[in-house]
Design a protein that fits this description.
Blueprint: H1 8-19, E1 28-35, E2 39-40, E3 45-55, E4 60-70, E5 77-82, E6 95-97, E7 100-107, E8 124-132, E9 141-155, E10 163-165, E11 170-171, E12 174-179, H2 184-199
Parallel strand pairs: 1-11, 2-12
Antiparallel strand pairs: 1-3, 3-8, 4-7, 4-9, 5-8, 6-7, 9-10, 9-12
Length: 200
Amino acid sequence: MTCRTTRTTICVLAALAATTPTLAQTSRAEVVFDIDSDTLLPGESTTVTLAAGWDGPWYSMCCVRTDLVASAGSTGWSDLSLIAPMAGPGTTPGTLGATGVEGIIAGQLNFPPGTPWEPDPNPLPFWRATYTAPTDVTVPFDIDLMTSTNAFDVYIEARSAVTQSLMDVLTEGQATIRVIPAPASTLVLAGLALAARRRR
């Protein structure tokens, strides 16, 4: 790079900018699934939690807007809820829809009256729900889960409303719940119990 003497400072800054990674290049963001039990028998339930994880020079999580897409649609889902502190003003745990849970909005304030005194844990849990397997399972099957996110913002520093979007470095969450038929021994016991009740 050649520069005139009067423009030396500008050229040096330009050279530094060309060789220094941007904040986006040095950051990472992800939506993480945590499933209490990922293998269920007919009628059994499990708790599914979503969390927001990030790397980079950020202070805390601001907000996440996402959908939970399930291969079985909305069947089996209940008890949708947000997890504090990501249950701030204007948030919602979403609603059941054709593809799963739609319109999850989780977030918190980073300035009065909601100023956090310490940085959030990372990853930060923000949403939870219950999935219950159907009772009439005759063959094993999988329920594939993934997120479809359209906002993932972090606060840059404490007690500031300034945010940074990490959508360009976001990895969507993915998980699977396996549903298997009840073992033959369980079916035999259930049949005996039913027969005993009928004899009474």
